[in-house]
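Lab meeting, item 3. Inverse folding demo.
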């Protein structure tokens, strides 16, 4: 009985220390900044393709990271990030049916204004953000 109690106490102690350490680490990360949504505007304005008026992509920025969520209906999309001088700093083609999320690291890029563009046959969305 003593061995079982001792073992149980050790396991609970390890779990408590682990949970405390994890929550402290997570709290440190989450206080850096909360993700900010990048407002996207439809530059193609084709009502036949976007009947609902709902933009099928969301883009959020947290520090030098961008988090993109695609709805499956957008198909193949070219994602481009351009700096304030019009130079591409990131380009990738994504098939939203097989890759519904995209994370973009902009680490090392200078502070300034940037534009993210999503282009396909059916749409062209654009959003501006600062770093």
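The presenter then showed the designed sequence:
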């Amino acid at each position: 009985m003593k061995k079982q109690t001792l073992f149980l106490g050790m396991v609970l102690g390890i779990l408590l220390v682990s949970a405390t350490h994890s929550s402290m680490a997570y709290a440190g990360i989450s206080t850096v900044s909360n993700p900010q949504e990048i407002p996207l505007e439809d530059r193609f304005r084709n009502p036949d393709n976007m009947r609902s008026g709902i933009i099928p992509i969301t883009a959020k920025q947290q520090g030098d990271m961008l988090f993109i969520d695609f709805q499956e209906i957008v198909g193949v999309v070219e994602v481009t990030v351009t700096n304030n001088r019009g130079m591409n700093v990131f380009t990738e083609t994504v098939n939203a049916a097989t890759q519904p999320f995209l994370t973009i690291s902009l680490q090392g890029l200078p502070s300034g204004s940037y534009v993210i563009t999503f282009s396909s046959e059916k749409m062209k969305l654009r959003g501006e953000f600062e770093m």
